[in-house]
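User:
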Amino acid sequence: MNRLFGTKNTAPKPTLDGAITNVETRISSIDVKLAALNSELSTYQTKISKMRDGPGKTALRQKALKVLQRRKQYEAQRDQLSQQSWNMEQAGMMQDNLKNVMTTVDAMKTTTKTLKKQYGQIDIDKIERLQDEMADLMDVGNEIQESISRAYDVPEDVDEAELDAELEALGEETMMESSMADSAMPSFLQDEVAPPQFIDEPPEQTKVKEPASGLG
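Assistant: Predicted structure:
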């Protein structure tokens, strides 16, 4: 059956980075060969410059021409591989840019969807009504503050003689109330209310006995 239909290829598919790596490896290999050919050409040129014209010099020149031809072929191949590598690098950069663009577009779609959902829950008319109500409440609050902080004017045309007479009348009322309170209080309470009086007695003087002038 495998001979008729073949087997399924399970090898991993080549990637762009892998292809670039392979091309760079081939370019490095060609650089090594070019370095060897340049060294060989330098040797031939040195020998040819020291030889006289003749069959030997002609044969050596033919070898140098073949080496030079091989070098040109390798250089052409190297240029082709370098161009391929550059093209693949450009393709890789375009692929990366496309991925970044797609990521940005997806993020913008998600953000737009979220914003639409959030803004859809907001009623602009309701917000404007709330703003108007807040403004009205602020005006009412300011009026209340102005009313509370209003200063009451004291009349300036007050007669000092009237104030003195009123003060004297208040003093007489106070004295009358005090005398009435004293007359209404019983005598025994008045004695108790009176502050106690203490009489300090003079200290006793002790006489000191005089010693006897003589005995017998």
